[in-house]
Design goal:
Elements lengths: L15 H16 L3 H14 L2 H15 L3 H4 L2 H8 L4 H7 L4 H8 L2 H10 L11 H19 L4 E6 L6 E7 L2 E6 L3 E6 L4 E7 L3 E6 L3 E6 L4 E5 L5 E5 L6 E7 L4 E6 L4 E5 L5 E5 L8 E6 L12 E6 L4 E6 L9 E3 L14 E2 L3 E5 L4 E5 L5 E5 L9 E5 L3 E5 L3 E6 L4 E7 L12 E3 L16 E6 L5 E6 L4
Antiparallel strand pairs: 1-28, 2-3, 3-4, 4-5, 6-7, 7-8, 8-9, 10-11, 11-12, 12-13, 14-15, 15-16, 16-17, 18-19, 19-20, 20-21, 22-23, 23-24, 24-25, 26-27, 27-28
Helix pairs in contact: 8-9
Organism: Sinocyclocheilus rhinocerous
Keywords: Acetylation, Repeat, Ubl conjugation pathway, WD repeat
Protein name: F-box/WD repeat-containing protein 2
């Protein structure tokens, strides 16, 4: 027998036919073994293997054990599985390899879903997954800013020489009415005063492109022309201060709520009183004119509805051509008048929302049933409603603004406020842009968030900070 210098037999390759026969025999025997015997056999073979065999074994095992399931699955099934992952895991998966990044970035529904979870409004017509991934990253940053009190910034408007009693915001413009017998129109973006006209002491204001309508502590209402400052109409008839007004040009109707506990309906063009609505026993601090969007036994979609609010009740009135207008419904949160309503109201034609000392109440306008009561983490009696949407609500107390996620009723952001004058009538503070309350979209989180009058006669503004 021939031996090598080390005393080992030289390696002589087995003939192909003999090798194939041997391999078949070994395979048959191996398959007949138990799992434990198979493992022992493999351990023995590994111990006999050299570097070339171990390297070969490693390469083959990696391919067998680390199969890329995302690459092997049909794309529809891969998308379905990805929808179960949380956003952070999805972003981590994007780093695994180019193929995973490509698949995940192509899944539009996944990114739309995580955006929706953050309170983002989704445009279903946009099917570009890369777009929605970018929106998610921007949304994630904005929500982080809200949590860390970094989403907003502040500025001031200075120009009045006496207390500012009334504020109204529309399309980037803020109107202020003051005890200095003037009303001013400001561009919120630039902080510049666009118009300034001499008026009476304004308790409430509302404007459009051509005119300004003011309600006053002198019991009158006036309509002014912006470009000339001229008074073009005056409305006399209330015997108490006028705290709230609303109007509709198409109806030629103006409505007003007063400290004399009445609501008056006026012809906007002639200044004549069409009707006086009675039934309130407290100051009427808010009137709101709006089309109904739902149907009930009392109203149909398209009918104009007037809501009026005092300290304890919300009254619902039909507004039309009829003179004898009767109250359709009276809403309250306590029969014995033990619970006060806050001087804010929201009505979009479908739901009535008002905050109270017990929490935020939401009524369904079709049935007038209370469908929701939200009791914030903060003391409800000190909290006021600014805006209520499908996704978020904007609230505030003496110290902070609060952004609440209405799906969880959890505060997701807040912002500190300076010491300000909180009017019991709710006219010296107001929200700005409110479309984001129905869901952010990366475009509506700009502009004014909140405004209030300050003891030094300035107006304190809270604005969205630019999202990086």
């Amino acid at each position: 027998m021939l031996l090598t210098a080390g005393g080992r037999r030289p390696h002589v390759p087995m003939e192909k036919v003999a090798f194939e026969g041997w391999l078949e025999s070994v395979s048959t025997t191996f398959l007949a073994l138990s799992d434990q015997q198979r493992n022992q056999s493999l351990d023995h073979l590994i111990s006999l293997s050299g570097a070339a065999q171990l390297r070969h074994l490693s390469n083959r095992l990696e391919a067998l054990l680390k199969r890329d399931f995302l690459r092997l699955l049909p794309l529809e099934l891969a998308f379905y599985l990805l929808r179960w992952l949380d956003p952070q895991t999805l972003l981590t998966c994007c780093l695994v390899c180019k193929q995973w990044n490509k698949v995940i970035n192509a899944c539009t529904e996944v990114w739309q879903s995580v955006c929706r979870d953050l309170g983002w409004r989704i445009d279903e017509s946009i099917q570009d997954a890369t777009h929605w991934k970018g929106v998610y990253l921007k949304a994630k940053l904005r929500m982080k800013q809200l949590r860390e009190e970094d989403a907003f910034e502040t500025s001031s408007l200075i120009g009045h020489s006496a207390r500012v009693y009334a504020l109204y915001y529309r399309d980037g413009l803020l109107c202020t009415g003051s005890d200095d017998l003037s009303a001013k129109l400001w561009d919120v973006r630039t902080g510049q005063c666009v118009y300034g006209i001499q008026t009476h002491t304004c308790a409430t204001v509302k404007f459009d492109e051509q005119k300004l309508v003011t309600g006053s502590f002198d019991n009158t209402i006036a309509c002014w022309e912006w470009c000339t400052g001229a008074k073009i109409q005056q409305f006399r008839g209330h015997t108490g201060a006028v705290f709230s007004i609303d109007y509709n040009d198409d109806l030629d109707t103006l409505v007003s709520g007063s400290a004399d506990s009445t609501v008056k309906v006026w012809s906007l063009s002639t200044g004549t009183c069409v009707n006086t609505l009675t039934g309130h026993t407290e100051w009427v601090t808010k009137v709101h004119l709006q089309k109904s969007q739902v149907e009930s036994m009392m109203h149909s979609p398209g009918d104009y509805i007037l809501l009026s609010v005092d300290k304890y009740e919300i009254k619902v009135w039909p507004i039309g051509c009829e003179i004898n207008c009767k109250c359709l419904k009276t809403l309250s949160v306590s029969e014995d008048r033990s619970v006060c309503l806050q001087p804010r109201l929201q009505f979009d034609g479908r739901y009535i929302v008002c905050s109270s000392d017990l929490g935020i109440y939401q009524w369904d306008f079709a049935s007038f049933d209370v469908i929701r009561v939200i009791k914030p983490q903060q003391d409800p009696s000190s909290l006021s409603l600014l805006g209520f949407g499908k996704v978020f609500a904007l609230l505030f107390d003496n110290h902070h603004l609060y952004v609440m996620d209405l799906r969880t009723e959890v505060t997701v952001g807040r912002w500190p406020l300076p010491a300000y004058r909180k009017s019991k009538r709710g006219s010296s503070f107001l929200p700005g842009v409110t479309s984001w309350l129905n869901g952010l979209d990366g475009k509506n989180d700009v502009g004014l968030v909140f405004a209030t009058s300050m003891p030094d006669h300035s107006i304190h503004l809270v604005l969205w900070r630019e999202n990086g």
